[in-house]
Amino acid sequence: MGEKKKKIIKTIKIDVDKCNGCRACEMICSAFHAAPRYSSNNPERSRIRVIHDPLRDIYFPVYAGEYTAAECMGRDRYVINGKEYDECALCRAACPSRGLFKEPDSGLPLKCDMCEDDPPQEEPLCVKWCLNDALIYEEREEEVEEEEVKLDEMEIGLEELANKYGLQKVTEAISRMSKKGEV
Ligand code: SF4
Ligand code: SF4
């Protein structure tokens, strides 16, 4: 058993009934993550996407979760209040079977980082900009085992590039860029 330590667990509660599909959350998320910050907005770059089912007239905010190199073998089909959703529609993974949660230019996976910032934001920006209170931010403290080192966003991107082109090519490219003074 590893050491115990305190950890702040951050959650965003999603009240689907209050979401009217305004997409302010997508706009602010993509603008916050633009480089330079707030220089552009494009929902394709957002770490939250609002799934709309026109036949059932419902909007469903879904957050970008973990990157997965292979699509899963099974499929989930949700039925909520008698409404059946398409396979994969509510899944959070950036996965090879669909275009959701991928940077449109590079194809690299996107993941919600809770608007990590220095100094920290008071609350995630999608929550702040959701004027319908469909997104509610909550924090709680929990005792957890010492964590293994988690991959950060950059490492996830590098892993994806290595899967696509091979580690050797990625290493060579970084070495070339470094010689040219690009990195
Ligand atoms: S900002 Fe709120 S109401 Fe608007 S789409 Fe996003 S979750 Fe829904
Ligand atoms: S918490 Fe921040 S990074 Fe995550 S979806 Fe909301 S705005 Fe984007």
Describe the 3D structure.
With 183 residues, the protein is α+β, with helices and mostly antiparallel strands. The protein folds into 2 domains: 4-147, no CATH class; 149-183. The protein is built from 4 helices and 6 strands. The protein has helices spanning 24-32, 125-129, 153-165, 167-179, and strands at residues 4-14, 48-53, 58-63, 79-80, 83-84, 135-145. The strands form 3 sheets. Strands 1-6 form a two-stranded antiparallel sheet. Strand 4 (79-80) and strand 5 (83-84) form a beta hairpin. The radius of gyration is 19 Å and the shape is globular. It starts with a strand and ends with a helix. 19% of the residues are buried. Bound molecules: iron/sulfur cluster (2 copies). One iron/sulfur cluster binds next to helix 1 and helix 2.
Question: What is the element layout, followed by pairings?
Answer:
Blueprint: E1 4-14, H1 24-32, E2 48-53, E3 58-63, E4 79-80, E5 83-84, H2 125-129, E6 135-145, H3 153-165, H4 167-179
Antiparallel strand pairs: 1-6, 2-3, 4-5
Helix pairs in contact: 3-4
The structure holds iron/sulfur cluster (SF4) (2 copies).
One iron/sulfur cluster binds at residues 19-25, 50, 59, 61, 129-130, 132, 134-135.
